[in-house]
Amino acid sequence: ICIQSNVPSNFSKILEAEHLQNFSNFRRHFYHINHQRIKFSLQDYPNINITNIRLAPVNQSVQNDFMKRLNKNTSCFPHLVYHGTRLKNIESILQYGFLIPNRAHPSNSEAPIIVSEHGRAFGTGIYSSYSAAYSLLYINATNTFLACAAIPKRDKVGKIERFHGNILVLSHISQIIPLFLIDFKYLNGLWRNYPCFNEEKQCKIDKNNEIKKPVIISRKYLRKVLNYMNDEVRKNNRYQVRSFEFFN
């Protein structure tokens, strides 16, 4: 894959009070601003087709950490960045958020301590990219990557820190959050297609639902069943009345 930089030249978007009220409002607004860029993030690669964009089911605690930081950094709109990783890592990211290698989670003792898989060319931190195609290089055993919102740190004059070409490195876990799962498919035979995240589980659910389809009873048969039940109820009521008269 030939990589081209997708770093946007203008980040001047507005965050209104309603967008900061909760994570759902923010994500909805973020997608409204960036949906075209997300949908066409791989348009320069005709052999790769985006097949689905899904909401990332992010843990509530991860949402809360991000929204706290966002409410303290309202002067600049969060950046759209992408992250590609192994299939097994996506579940952990959704549960615990992005983690910094060789560091314990600052508030969640259940979060695992991870190790760096691709080196640390620009120091320790969470690596993301402004290029969706670049993120595909780090995907393993899945056809899903993450579209994220990132709050980069800035220096005193407003310059973004730890920004290297199309790579953005974040120093704290609350600076980035996955918003969307992007499923894609290779259209040529040069690259192997793998299942999308949770695709196999979803297929099993769909299959079970097919097996457990409701039984449709004809109206004629249902009427007979109801008439029989009504007859039994009437017989039982007559028996109860007679018994009552007998004992009195």
What does this entry look like structurally?
This protein has 248 residues and is of the alpha+beta class. The chain has a single domain (17-197), classed as Phosphoenolpyruvate Carboxykinase, domain 3, CATH 3.90.228.10. 35% of the residues lie in helices and 17% in strands. The chain is built from six helices and seven strands, in the order αβαβαβαββββαα. It has helices at residues 23-39, 60-72, 87-96, 132-136, 199-211, 219-247; strands at residues 48-55, 79-83, 126-129, 144-150, 163-164, 167-170, 176-186. The chain has a four-stranded antiparallel β-sheet. It has a three-stranded antiparallel β-sheet with strand order 3-6-5. Strand 5 (163-164) and strand 6 form a beta hairpin. Mean pLDDT is 83; it is low at 2-6, 202-207, 209-215 and 239-248.
